[in-house]
């Protein structure tokens, strides 16, 4: 009798899995996406993560604990091919800068002595997931192609360490590196800060804080604002590739980083998280479609705020330029900008708007927008088992343009 129960249960599981595989294989993928079959499964993995996050949220369980982070990081590193970092002609070493762990990638093509053009890199992962170890293969590949010395900062992460702790780690490390430029062979006056996603947010905040010490900020699909969670790019990714660039997951990460209660998550997703006072302030103009976006990119309704307790939690931090770099009201003192935006990315519109604002302030070097690309595809640029031409192109453009900047 027992074997029949297990047989029925196993059969049901096989049917459900087969049905899900069928759904994934026949799911529409936006036009212009390379390797649609691979993207379907990457997106499916992200959708599954969304479900897990939502269920854990409903149960009141904090998912992002140390054991879970280890498992996620190991899986991400395996998928991205980061275990093969030592195959490249790179000298890699671990050290600390004022007690902040860093990992240094120095290409063997660099001179044996003297200063080297240097980039300080802050990895993505929603201020919560991933690590310098996960990014090692990508950063080794990046250093080899560009000839740059890349110093990756292993900052502390949310939710255990919320704003401003991760940023303080990044500032401490970057300031220490700048002050000890000779010890770290950093080319004077050419220090670059860079990052993708949440790392792009940190790079922008570091550039804002150390404006006269930084030569260039390289922002790859950066998270820049919590003012409006219903931009057209947030809406489009929710419909097209919600696993690869999830509006829900992005908002969840913003709350974790800001130390804001997850009880207020639904208000933020519905764009009801800010008070009318903030919505009608000068900061609203920084995310104004009519000023900074193409005419066909419609920005959302900025809905009326929720109750005072909710809006107060967000109002206290939403206009802080160190948390939301988009809210910087003086762009004239910022280092020059290299911005990368992708078509299928929830952060697309804010990246475009920020680049346009800096263009008007004459503080931009390049803004490159890639159609057919999605959030995170720069990590699939040719060093691991998954390679996308668009990811390779983004990295090649970065290498070429950054090197042309360095020689000017």
From TrEMBL:
User: Coiled-coil regions in this chain?
Assistant: none
Keywords of this protein's UniProt record, alphabetized?
A: Hydrolase, Membrane, Transmembrane, Transmembrane helix
Q: What SUPFAM superfamilies does its record include?
A: alpha/beta-Hydrolases
State if Endoplasmic reticulum is listed as a keyword: no
Secretion signal span: none
Domain Alpha/beta hydrolase fold-3, which positions?
A: 119-239, 315-376
Under Gene Ontology molecular function, one entry of this record is:
hydrolase activity
Enumerate the transmembrane spans: 6-25
Give the matching Pfam families.
Abhydrolase_3
Q: Does the keyword section mention Flavoprotein? A: no
Q: Which InterPro entries match?
A: AB_hydrolase_3 (IPR013094), AB_hydrolase_fold (IPR029058), GDXG_lipolytic_enzyme (IPR050300)
Check the record and name the PANTHER family matching this protein: AB HYDROLASE SUPERFAMILY PROTEIN C4A8.06C (PTHR48081), ALPHA_BETA HYDROLASE FOLD-3 DOMAIN-CONTAINING PROTEIN-RELATED (PTHR48081:SF8)
Name the record gives this protein: Alpha/beta hydrolase fold-3 domain-containing protein
Q: Which organism is it from?
A: Dreissena polymorpha (Zebra mussel)
User: What taxonomic lineage is listed for the species of origin?
Assistant: Eukaryota, Metazoa, Spiralia, Lophotrochozoa, Mollusca
